[in-house]
Each structure stands twice: as structure tokens, then as C-alpha cells.
Write a structure and sequence with these properties.
heterodimer, A: alpha+beta, four-stranded antiparallel β-sheet, two-stranded antiparallel sheet, 19 helices, B: mainly alpha, 14 helices, about 0% strand, globular
């Protein structure tokens, strides 16, 4: 057994799939950043709001005024360098840090796919993705020396990406094993009929059997696609399924770049022959520019590869990384109550598109004279922030503290903050959400169960 | 896999995917079980246009009695003028929520019903005799609240009010301002009405898609905005002091006439009820509405009845409002707890509209622009 493991970690394979993965990743991240900026979201999401919702322990990560644009520029530039394979380790590190910083600035914008990008870029930090077809190794990039073999890299480095993708899909599938999704076809029963205006598919979207078909096939797709991609005989069919599935989700839902990221990522499952052909194709495109590259190429001093040199550290680090990936989604079991209702342990778990949840939260400020008034949320929050805040308890608590501090500063004494809130989940009528007799200003944020969330008067069975 | 095939597949994926990124004009290409066009036609032909028509007629009568009053400022003409003003103000309650099309472009409701009206601005305008009533700075010096002040608030009793329009050194200034404000209200209303009876009606009823700019979505967003702000907050919540440390009795609608705030609020609530349920302005028929849309969607998805819950909450709010003094300012000063209770009942319906109804309709909301997952 031990020797099996040992042999596995010494096995090598072509560097081509990882090189293509690096290029695809870099290009898509660069495009994502440009798209984000072009929509004006840097301003509306990070600069305009007067208050930001922080992750517990990360209140120190804040937007930095107009310099926030520089963080995005840095992130985009790093993505470009990653794609080019220029100073790969540094570029990847800068990308990982800047992208993660951006995501930590305000949890209002939390998306599973942003978390996926952060996790993936952390993993890529340790992988030899620029060993081949990169500026860092320019001598064999443009004019390929036919005698030169494609460099070899450890096989586990490519497998680790497959593992991460597999975890994302499989856990997304597990999360769908619940009665709302499978028995009630919720929330698709709410979402799909509202797509009545989509060309061709519009009519179909209103049929009940379609809602069930989508729910069940979505669940089966997520659970099985990693294995179907791994198995050579089903791979091409599985890839077609990947394309169809993600394009469909892109058409039906506003999910930005995520479908494209997943489609391109899935290419990693193919044999290196395909990636060699892609590289040869790009090489031919670059050929006219050859003269610019040749003078730049340099004889490289053969250095021991990083993933080999620091293998003793890298493997344990990635071991812990994957252990966390596998365990974090189960942390919800440590909390009482319905996960969808309390959202304690909901994030960072690949729970995607499971809930149609909306809320309304009216905050009441009471001072020591017993005088009280309601807050107009629009005075402090953007509509997007208000929407997200209204049904997520940690947002509600943080906002209550912000309000308490604000009105204390304004000269109110002994401020108490209460909330009158309602939440509707997956088509159930709205119910009171937070105990309105609890002074939220006196409650500290922690990972403890939030006992002030009122019980969910229904049951969702399953994982 | 052949590289060419792969490139083809990826290209097609990107092409299909990015098509859906672009905004379309909101014209749906399919028909389905619920006829959204019929909903919009009912709203336009039986509710919005008739209400605007009626308001326009009322404002014409208001103009006539205003001309009479200016020519002969006596008690009889003042009474007549006040009556016409109230008539039009009541009709306005059926129009304010439709901040769509031309009304939105010209900021119609901002020029018709911003209160409390700003007495200093009005007095300055009268004194200077040069003013641009369309200027945003004058939004709180025009419309129904300004006329309320001019007819009831310029002096302490009717005799002194009449005196203002007869013997005051600047009587002509007051007459001119009263006249200009009413004429302006009439011409704004005519502009909005003409747009509806002209080209806008057809554009409106054909925009049945689910996009941020389609009529189906704009109309319901406007409706909810009105219910929450124009009705719940402005008419009841703000005077009751729910958003301030102390009650603000001077913020009631029709503050100077001192007797119509309840009547106006009840009418506003009726307008909300009628629109939600698709009741025609003249009360004769009931057509396809957001209520019937919500009912159908919830029946289809097997979720509990929402329309009944909304209607019964509106009825509860109405019952609570009926208990109040005719003049909300009196109510605030005598027993404000009844005011805040009315606010609470109105708020419960806000929750049903904003959360349950919007979740059921799964409307593309106009205010959130970001990716989801």
C-alpha cells in the first residue's frame, strides 16, 4: 500500500494539459475582471456603499476607495501573466491574494464560483503549470525543437485539479438530495416559469414535468459527471453533457462567467494528445511573431522543479487543503435547526441554486428614554446589500451592530437594536425570522448557534 | 476528440451563452397559459387611462372654479374651489402609483404630491413673482399640497384667507400663483394622458417579457414602491413618527385643510386594492390582474394561497385605518398608538407584496445588478 502511494506520487505525465489549463484559466480570469469593470460593478459594489458586510474575522479587509480599481487592475494583470506563463509563481500568488482580497471585501457578493476561483488559484500556486508553453520556458514555446520532448510533470499535479473539480460537482450533487429539490422541484418550480420569454424554450419552462426533469437530471449530473469524465469510454459524451448543462444554466440564470469556467476546466480530463494539438495550433498562430521571441529565449540553468524540491511541504499542505474541502461542507451538522433557514454552515459548501429565499427586515432603534424609531435601510445600504441582508442572520447581526454604533455616535444613549423580520423560503408563505424581543446590539458575532433565529415551521428532509 | 469539433462546440457555447447576456426589448416571443398581455391591457384600458381621464376632467373643473374664484374671491367661490380641489385630490390617489412612461420621464408625481409643502418657498415665489414651477427646487411648492396651503393655510380663518386674495397688498401675486400652480397640474396631467392615449398604450401592453424594462415588471415594481413609500410611509408612518424619535403631525397629507387625511389615505388604499385585484376604475368589471397571476402561479407550483392572504391583510389594515380620526394630525396628537398600529398592519401587507408576491412572480428586479450562482 505504502509503496503504491509512493509510486503514485512519483509517476509523471505530459505537461501539456496543465499548460492549457493555465492558459484557459488566465484568459478567463482576465476576461472576468474586464467584464466586472465594464459593468461598473467595481463602483456599485465596492466604492459606492458606505458600509460593507465582512466575513467573521475579516473586518480588516475593506475596499480602499478609488485605489480599489488598482486591486482589480493588479488582479487582471496577474491573470494575464498567468496566461502567458510569465513569472508564473509570483503572478499566481498575486492573483490569488488580490482575487481573495476582493472577495473578502464584502460578503454581499459571495458566490460559490468566486470561492471556487480562490480555492483553485491557491491549488495552482503549487502546481508546475508554467513548465511548458510559457514565457518562463520560452526556448520551447514558439519554435518547437522537434527533437525536444514535451516536459514531464508529476501526475498528481494534474489529478489534484480533477479532484477539486470532482469535489465541487459531487458535493453540489449531494446538496440536491433533499425533499424541496427532488419532491417539490423547488426552487426550479418558481424560477423556470418566469423564463417564459426565452425563445424556443419559453413554453417548455412552464411545464411541471420539465421542473422535475431539470431537478432530477441536475442532481444526477452533479453526482456522476466527475466519474463519467474520468472514465475514458464515457468521456466525450460526458463533455458534451458538461457543455449542454452549463450553456443551459447560462441561458436560464444570470450566473456570469461560471459556466464557461467549468466548461474550459473540464478539458483537463482529456488525454494530453488533445492538449498537444491545441498547443500546436496556437504555436502555428504565433509563428509569424517568431522573430520577436527568439532573441528573448535564453538558456535556462536547469533548476530542480519547485513541486519536487519542496515536495515535503507541498504534499502535506495540499493534503490539508483537500481535507478541508471535504470536511467544510459537513460543518452544518454541528448546528441545530434547518440549514436552509438558519444558513449556519451554508457557504463554502457548493450549495448552488438550492434556495429561492427573500426577506424583509425592519430595524428598530430604542434609546434609554424608551424612544424608538424604525430605520430606513436605504439610508445605509444599497438595494443589493439590503436584499442579501434581509434573509441571512450573520448579515442581520452585523448590520444591527453598525446601526447601534451609528446611532450611539449620533448621541443616543444606551441604544438597543431590534429587528422585525420575515423570510419566505422556496414558495412557503413568509414567516417571522428573528426574535423581535432580542436586542441584537448586545449579541456578539461568533460561530456559535444563533439562538435568536426563530424556528422554521416546516421540515426539509435529506442531506 | 477532434480539435476542430472541440473548437466548434466551444464557439457555439460562447455564442449561445453570450446572446443571453444582452438585454432585449422585453417583447416576449411565446404565449403561455397566463396571458400577461391581457393583464397589461386591463391595467391600461380599464384602470390607468380611465383614472387619468377622470383626473384630467377634475382638474378642468378645478381650473374653471379657480378662474371664478380669482375673478370674484368670495366665500361661495372659495367653497366651490375647495370642493373641486378635494375631488381631484381623491382621484389623484388612483394615479400616483403609475410612475411609468411619460409620468416617469417628467417626474409627474414629484410635481403633484410632495408634502409637507414648503411654505417659505411658496411665499418667496409669490413675493418674487418669478418662478419656474417645473424646477426640482419647487417640487415641494406645487401640486395638491401647495393648493391645500393656498386654500386653507395662508391665514387663520376663511375671512382672512379671502382677505389675502382681495385686500392684501400682494393679492394679485397670490391669485397668480394659485392660478399657475393649478394650470401646471392640469397641463402635466394632459401630457401624461395624451401619451397614454397616443402611442404609449400599445408599447406598454406589448412589453410582456421578464426583463428589468418590461411593463409587467416595471408596473409591479412601481406598485410596490408606491405602496411602501407613497402610502405606508408618507400617509401614515412618517406622521406617526415610526422613522423619527418623535411623531411629526405636520407631515400628514392635506395638513392645512385639517380634515381629509384619512379620506385620502383610505382612497389610496382602495386604489391599491383595486389595482392588485384588477378592478376597473369605474368599478364595473374585474379583469386579469397580478392577483390572478399570483393565484395561477401558486396553484401551478402547489404552494399555499397568497392572494387571499394579501386581500385579508389589506382589509385588516383598512379596518385599523377606519378607527382613526378624520385628521391624522389630531390622531397623532391625541393617541398615536392607533396610528402606529395602522402602520404595523400596512407593513404586514408590505411583507406579503415584497417578499411573497415578488418571489412568486420571480420578477427581474430593477435594483440588483450582479451575477448570481
Amino acid at each position: 500500500m505504502k509503496s503504491n502511494i509512493h509510486t503514485y506520487f512519483n509517476r509523471t505525465t505530459s505537461a501539456a494539459p496543465l499548460a492549457i489549463f493555465r492558459i484557459g484559466f488566465g484568459v478567463m480570469m482576465l476576461y472576468s475582471i474586464i467584464r466586472f469593470a465594464a459593468h461598473g460593478w467595481i463602483n456599485t459594489l465596492y466604492i459606492e456603499p458606505q458600509f460593507h458586510f465582512s466575513y467573521f474575522g475579516f473586518t480588516w479587509v475593506q475596499p480602499v476607495g478609488n485605489a480599489t480599481y488598482l486591486i482589480f487592475a493588479l488582479c487582471g494583470l496577474a491573470a494575464l501573466f498567468v496566461a502567458l506563463g510569465y513569472k508564473y509563481r509570483i503572478s499566481m500568488l498575486v492573483f490569488f491574494l488580490s482575487f481573495t482580497y476582493i472577495e473578502l471585501m464584502d460578503k454581499t457578493t459571495y458566490l460559490n464560483h468566486y470561492y471556487f476561483i480562490s480555492a483553485l488559484s491557491f491549488l495552482l500556486l503549487f502546481l508546475p503549470a508554467a513548465r511548458y508553453f510559457s514565457i518562463d520556458t520560452l526556448d520551447n514555446t514558439v519554435a518547437k525543437d522537434e527533437n525536444k520532448q514535451t516536459p514531464q510533470i508529476p501526475k498528481w499535479t494534474i489529478d489534484s485539479i480533477k479532484l477539486l473539480l470532482g469535489v465541487v460537482y459531487f458535493y453540489a450533487g449531494l446538496a440536491k438530495l433533499n425533499s424541496d429539490w427532488l419532491i417539490k422541484a423547488m426552487p426550479l418550480k418558481i424560477w423556470l416559469p418566469s423564463k417564459y420569454d426565452i425563445p424556443l424554450l419559453g413554453n417548455l419552462m412552464e411545464q411541471e414535468w420539465v421542473h422535475y426533469a431539470f431537478s432530477w437530471s441536475g442532481m444526477l449530473y452533479d453526482l456522476f459527471i466527475p466519474f463519467l469524465l474520468l472514465y475514458k469510454r464515457t468521456r466525450i459524451l460526458a463533455f458534451v453533457a458538461v457543455v449542454v448543462f452549463h450553456v443551459l444554466t447560462r441561458v436560464l440564470f444570470p450566473i456570469g462567467m461560471f459556466p464557461f469556467v467549468m466548461i474550459v476546466s473540464a478539458l483537463i480530463f482529456f488525454d494530453s494528445g488533445l492538449h498537444e494539438r491545441i498547443i500546436n495550433y496556437i504555436r502555428r498562430l504565433l509563428l509569424p511573431l517568431k522573430m520577436f521571441f527568439i532573441p528573448l529565449s535564453r538558456k535556462r540553468v536547469p533548476k530542480k522543479a519547485m513541486e519536487l524540491k519542496y515536495k515535503r511541504f507541498i504534499l502535506p499542505i495540499l493534503g490539508i487543503f483537500f481535507a478541508l474541502q471535504l470536511l467544510l461542507p459537513w460543518r452544518y451538522l454541528a448546528y441545530p435547526g434547518e440549514l436552509f433557514w438558519t444558513e449556519e454552515g451554508y457557504r463554502f459548501s457548493w450549495r448552488v441554486m438550492l434556495m429561492e429565499k427573500m426577506g424583509s427586515a425592519q430595524f428598530k432603534i430604542v434609546d434609554e428614554d424608551g424612544k424608538s424609531f424604525y430605520v430606513q435601510n436605504s439610508d445605509f445600504l444599497t438595494p443589493f446589500q439590503e436584499k442579501q441582508m434581509s434573509y441571512q442572520p450573520d448579515f442581520i447581526l452585523q448590520y444591527a451592530h453598525f446601526l447601534g454604533d451609528h446611532f450611539t455616535q449620533q448621541g443616543h444613549k444606551n441604544v438597543a437594536v431590534y429587528v422585525d423580520s420575515y423570510v419566505a423560503l422556496n414558495g412557503r408563505l413568509s414567516q417571522p425570522y428573528v426574535d423581535k424581543a432580542v436586542n441584537l446590539y448586545a449579541i456578539k458575532e461568533s460561530f456559535q448557534h444563533k439562538s435568536w433565529i426563530l424556528p422554521f415551521n416546516d421540515e426539509i428532509k435529506g442531506l | 476528440m477532434k480539435l476542430r469539433n472541440l473548437v466548434l462546440v466551444l464557439f457555439a457555447a460562447i455564442a449561445i451563452g453570450s446572446c443571453s447576456e444582452s438585454e432585449d426589448d422585453g417583447v416576449a416571443t411565446t404565449t403561455d397559459s397566463f396571458d400577461r398581455k391581457a393583464l397589461l391591457e386591463n391595467a391600461a384600458d380599464n384602470i390607468i387611462i380611465p383614472a387619468l381621464q377622470d383626473l384630467s376632467d377634475d382638474l378642468n373643473s378645478l381650473k374653471t372654479s379657480k378662474d371664478l374664484f380669482i375673478a370674484t374671491p368670495n366665500q361661495a367661490n372659495l367653497d366651490e374651489l375647495r370642493e373641486e380641489w378635494l375631488d381631484a385630490y381623491m382621484t389623484w390617489q388612483y394615479v400616483e402609483m403609475f410612475n411609468i412612461g411619460r409620468a416617469e420621464e417628467i417626474l409627474y408625481s414629484f410635481q403633484m404630491n410632495i408634502y409637507p409643502t414648503n411654505v417659505t418657498d411658496i411665499q418667496n415665489n409669490i413675493a418674487s413673482a418669478s418662478y419656474d414651477l417645473t424646477s426640482p427646487n419647487n417640487n415641494d411648492a406645487v401640486g395638491f399640497p401647495a393648493v391645500d396651503y393656498l386654500l386653507y393655510g395662508v391665514a387663520t380663518d376663511d375671512l382672512s384667507i379671502l382677505d389675502t386674495y382681495t385686500n392684501n397688498t400682494n393679492a394679485q401675486g397670490y391669485k397668480d400663483y394659485l392660478s399657475d400652480v393649478i394650470d401646471q397640474m392640469d397641463s402635466l396631467t394632459t401630457a401624461v394622458l395624451n401619451d397614454w392615449t397616443g402611442s404609449y398604450r400599445d408599447i406598454f401592453v406589448n412589453s410582456t417579457g421578464n426583463t428589468v424594462t418590461s411593463s409587467v415588471n416595471l408596473l409591479i415594481n412601481d406598485f410596490i414602491f408606491y405602496y411602501e413609500k407613497g402610502l405606508r410611509a408618507n400617509k401614515v408612518g412618517i406622521p406617526a413618527g415610526v422613522f423619527s424619535t418623535t411623531p411629526l403631525a405636520d407631515r400628514v397629507e392635506g395638513f392645512y385643510s385639517e380634515e381629509f387625511s384619512k379620506e385620502l389615505a383610505l382612497e389610496g388604499l382602495q386604489a391599491v386594492d383595486d389595482f392588485f385585484n384588477g378592478r376597473a376604475y369605474d368599478g364595473s368589471t374585474t379583469g386579469p390582474s397580478y392577483a390572478s397571476y399570483v393565484t395561477e402561479l401558486r396553484t401551478n407550483s402547489g404552494t399555499s394561497d397568497l392572494t387571499t392572504a394579501i386581500n385579508s391583510q389589506l382589509a385588516t389594515a383598512r379596518a385599523q385605518m377606519n378607527v382613526l380620526d378624520d385628521n391624522f394630525a389630531n390622531q397623532v396628537n391625541t393617541d398615536n398608538s392607533l396610528m402606529t398600529r395602522t402602520y404595523d398592519e400596512l407593513q404586514l401587507a408590505t411583507v406579503l407584496f415584497k417578499i411573497d408576491m415578488l418571489q412568486t412572480l420571480n420578477i427581474s428586479v430593477d435594483f440588483v445588478d450582479a451575477d448570481g450562482d
